[in-house]
Amino acid sequence: MTVKEIFETMDYGPAPESAVEALAWLVDQGDRFGHFIDGSFTTPADGFESRNPANGEVLATLSQATQADVDSAVAAARTAQPKWESLGGPGRAKFLYAIARLLQKHSRLAAVLETLDNGKPIREARDIDIPLAQRHFYYHAGMAQLMDSELPDAEALGVCGQIIPWNFPLLMLAWKIAPAIAMGNTVVLKPAEYTSLTAMLFADICQQAGLPAGVVNIVTGDGAVGEMITAAEVDKIAFTGSTSVGRRIREATAGSGKSLTLELGGKSPYIVFDDADIDSAVEGLVDAIWFNQGQVCCAGSRLLVQEGIAEAFHTKLRARMDKLRIGNPMDKCIDVGAIVDRVQLNAITELVTANTAGEMYQTKIDMPVGGCFYPPTLIEGLTTSDTLMQEEIFGPVLVSTTFRTPGEAVEIANNTRYGLAATLWSENVNLALDIAPKLVAGVVWINGTNMFDAAAGFGGVRESGFGREGGWEGLSAYTKPKTKTKPLELVKPFKGGGATADPLDRTAKMYIGGKQARPDSGYSQAIYGKSGTLLGHVGIANRKDVRNAVEAAAGAKGWSKTTGHLRAQILYYIGENLSARADEFAHRINIMAGKRTGATEVEAAIQRLFSAAAWADKYDGQVHNVPIRGVAMAMKEPVGIIGALCPDESPLLGLVSVMAPAIAMGNRVILSASHPYPLAATDFYQILDTSDVPAGVVNILTGNHTEVAKPLAAHLNVDAVWSFSSSNLSATIEAASAGNLKRTWVNHGLAIDWSQDHTKRFLQAATEVKNIWVPYGE
Ligand code: NAI
């Protein structure tokens, strides 16, 4: 093309990036890779090829890890961990800084390797993936530096198994490894089988940084290797990938005591109001759904446009689609590169071909031949029940619908099993900030999209998984409290045989929706004191009572919208009312549990209520400084409906310790009272009734924890389940929670000292952080 022709057409000329250095690096490594275990590369073994999806060329051969490889990686990590942790935060920070600097030094090599292996445009690898990966190590070097002073009660979990996907290979590696090693853990990481090359480069960088052997171990292979890591003797599994595999990992780790975070799929709404800056919103869509060929868990894949502007908006969008440049990802002028692998290309093609709803538009541009390319696609006029409005396509395919009112936009946006991210465009700050809190998503972007930073937590709700990556909140996924734990003995009810304390029939009912309710089972259980005296009866809850309690809790959703100030007053009121009847409760605890510590327990319960009341209006969010024109507001939201099996051994204090922080944060609770000593809980209804607690906010069931654990954990309207029961039901609960991937906190048969105030831990478990990115400053 001559200069004259270029001026005439104003067309882009090709601007190819050179692959020479990256290909030479691969040759230097022998084009065959072993695993990176205990600080060195193992001899390459049988495995699989990694191909360039843009042209099908083989780039290198990777080894498929065996059980022995995984075992030796875990053993190396285990051996290295205590010494790595004992280096202290500043000691570890030095290595993270060194890694960050080396990632900068080798940034072009990393970017080119990523593009060759993954098919993403070099512009994105160079300007987004690699800089963000560097930033993650810098940021977490700082976190390591600050750990001793800012997180004095936290310590490392131990060895972390980490399994990552192929869409942002080096960036996902950084998201996993940086916080883990900053907090003193060691890791065994498995990259996705399509894209292992930058992980190998990272292993090389670890060597160059002089990272102690065994701190980072990388094994390559397919899902079978992921399963081996999941089953290995590790203390945590951190997974990013599909919801179906995430669910399997939840089931496989149930009851194992392994900590778990899951960052899964999404079908994120992209909402455009009629007062939006339309050109910006159209350009935003390029970043929302055509960034990385739409292979982004938080891609704005569901367009919701306000009806009045829908036609004009779609017209502009189609025109913009026709200008997208698709082709060789190594060309710096390319907007849309190759799909990661033919398997994914086929999956996208099948999903789109099977769709008969709506109207499809594909870009009118010449498609590159060979390679795994899929044209940017728009499917208009879908309704929420259409498959493509619900299923993650994970490709450059945008589906769209329209809405009339802001309320309808929120309804459609939330009509999904996912809850990862949401984008909204409006020039009206009131409207934008009114809608943001109503969207069920872990991240909300206002007038921007797909923005990420190490300082702002990322992660979802619902079936998009749990746990956050980045920010202060991301660190808790890699630490545990320093407290020593000991086993929790099963607390058995006393047996009968003695005198009856009171000849009148005193069968306490359950407490559901602010009313006393008879158990559905029609069965009750006798409660005896230590000497065998019959103290009364309580109902035995079954799954139907659980369902009724969940319904009552769902009906009390207004509680989540009340102010912390109001909730604090109600908690103080409960405390005051309990205080007025302290002697009665203390006596009840003493005779029921055969203790002499009733008075101390009641006093501590009152203090716990006051602590939660104090925090109700102070457990605030944060505003994160992110390096763009904006800030990320990390808002703490209630988790929703929490089901909890209360401690058996501490009948009143345990129940209050669980309930108070949960309701202080705006959650509604279903509490299964102490099984052997339930009468303090049944007396407690009267306190709740006289303290202005709205009906349905606190629901109390009695009976055996074993009966209610599974129905609670399997219920799709319950958002979190906690268990502090002395019947170790951790495995049952974690396995049953996989259905809707609800958050769990279970004791794994370990005791918690309820005389200590754990309110802060409870506040954290009772809230979910939503990061709302808003334009701010210049
Ligand atoms: P995947 O979830 O199967 O793979 C992600 C990682 O998990 C890979 O490293 C894989 O080897 C590993 N893995 C697979 N099976 C495993 C098992 N049973 N136990 C432990 N680890 C296992 O995702 P895949 O098949 O590559 O993509 C399928 C779909 O998943 C995509 O079309 C997309 O919808 C979704 N996906 C979502 C991602 C996200 O970031 N949320 C990333 C990648 C895929």
UniProtKB/TrEMBL annotation:
Keyword Zinc assigned: no
Keyword set, alphabetical order: Oxidoreductase
The keyword Oxidoreductase is annotated on this UniProt entry: yes
Active site residues of this protein: E263
All residue ranges annotated as the Aldehyde dehydrogenase domain in the record: 47-483, 530-748
Family the UniProt entry places it in: Belongs to the aldehyde dehydrogenase family.
Protein name: Aldehyde dehydrogenase
Source organism of this protein record: Parasedimentitalea denitrificans
Classification of source organism: Bacteria, Pseudomonadati, Pseudomonadota, Alphaproteobacteria, Rhodobacterales
